[in-house]
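Attaching the record inline, Q. Sequence:
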Amino acid sequence: MEVTKSWHARRNRFAGLLLRCLLASVIAFAACRETDPVTRADELIASGRASEAIALLREAIDARPDDDELQFAYARALSAGGMRVLAEWPLRRAMRVERWRRSAGLALAENAMAMRNLDVAIETLSDLLQDDPDDVEILLRRADAHAATRTHLEETLEDVDRVKTLAPDDLRAYRPEIQAYLHAAMTPEAEAAIEELSERMEEAGGFDDDETDRWFCVTRALFDQESFRFEEARSRWETCLAHHPTSLEVVSEASAFFEARGDMARSLEIIEVAVEATDLTEGLVFRTALAQRLEALDRTDEAVALLEPGTKAILPETALGYWNVLAALYETAGRPSEALEATSRALALADELGGATADQRFAAGDLAIRSGDLDRAEQIARAIGAPNLRGLLEARILHDRGAFEEAVARYEEVARLWPDNAFLRYHEARALEQLGDLDRAIELYRHATRIEATATDAQTRIALILEAEGRIGDALRVLATQSSRGPLDLESELVFARLLGRAVTPGEVRAQIVAWQGRQPTAIVEGLTAFAHGLRVRGEPRAALSLLGVVDPAGLAQSRAGPAFAREMLRSMNAADERHAALDATIERGLALEGRSAAWIAVDGYRAELAGD
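Structure, as predicted:
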């Protein structure tokens, strides 16, 4: 039984949501005062102003290049600012200083893990273990790194056994052990380890820390879920929710499970409980999650009403967070002017708190670009003091104005200040695509991937170029390689599904659909639509029509992606010169929905057009 294909991906389902909320939440700005650069940089990092800390320390290092303390502080600032690649060498230098060796090494390993540079993480942790082979914390982290490779089963188990010998009561050792078994598809061993941990947990009266207790609860529920023991999984999720009703991990995973099982009411209820149990500040992430679900159900006004009270919160830092989330919601809902207005309110509030950071202004400028208000973006860019951020915005403005050659030149100028920025290289590659320089574009997309493997959809862009050239097999290999580095985002998965439709034989269709359902359980209809498109383009419209039997008609009619799927099925029916009563029934269900969705009305019109009515 294969239970591991999507196990690791599910953990990251709400990672983008959590990151957005964390970035949106701003704490009080510390007043500037005369102090040493290291102390001041640490204060800036703590207040979410890593870019300013980096600039401050860079200036200090220029004056004192041999100051090890400055170099270590610089590495911490780079890490906090997301520039993990640039932090590597300052951290390695700090490791040469005895008093910082362990902390710098752990930071280097943590950065490497975050970037999926698992060999570097393992090498660094192994180096630290030379100093103390019995350091349990480092052994645990190396076990986690080995487990994350999905191939180092023996090495993981060796570290786990060592930890169990040194600290037999430390139940954290079971985490990498179970993960290694799951990644190796060793289902019986994973189940045995889970049961053993369960028994030990009961003997010990529970875990010593709440985090491990939550992890174990979620792991057992996911294991049952991936083993297709849905009733057991349902029961475990309810238990997890009873003990951890406001845990982000539990709430997000459990709500996703019930949504995938078609119980949207329970999915929403889970998040609503978390919203009710938390105040505006603590519950920002849950209100964001609920608002996103409501928006996805075309209940945008309810989502806005849920968030608006937060914009009037007593704590200005909390209000700032809600303005940022509200801006993102408006953008998703296709209301760019309101999104930009909310962002402007956020910037004004940040200035009242002590001054918007360069990162906040950059984010606002980025939104202005994506909203099409390039004049506003230019105004924001002029107020940014950091030359790298200002330059990147200016390059993107040129890009969106269609001045692609000037944009590429500006990208190159900024690259000299910011050589290892994945987004910069990605956007430059997009400009080169417009100029027709596809070889150079592919080279820069690969460069962006080397900097940070999962930061952009660079590999998807390469796959699209290859698809346009008719190199379907090469395009599939590119995306398959990228998926081995980490879960693909939905848009990339949809490209993958379309390419599979153009490549697989009709007999392989069902197996590929099952694989898709494992990776994207909440976007099945979208995946089937992309898969059907690929089959039809390849000249297999009847194979595309076979996908009608995969989805429940009632669920399809209510799905936001249902009209697009129905339209693709109509195209395949037209190509195959067939009619399917099941599709007609689904369209009628969609038309009968309360409010008569405009999308279903359009599908009905297309059906009539094809029928010659």
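The chain has a mean pLDDT of 83. The CA atoms of residues 450 and 577 lie 47 Å apart.

More tomorrow.
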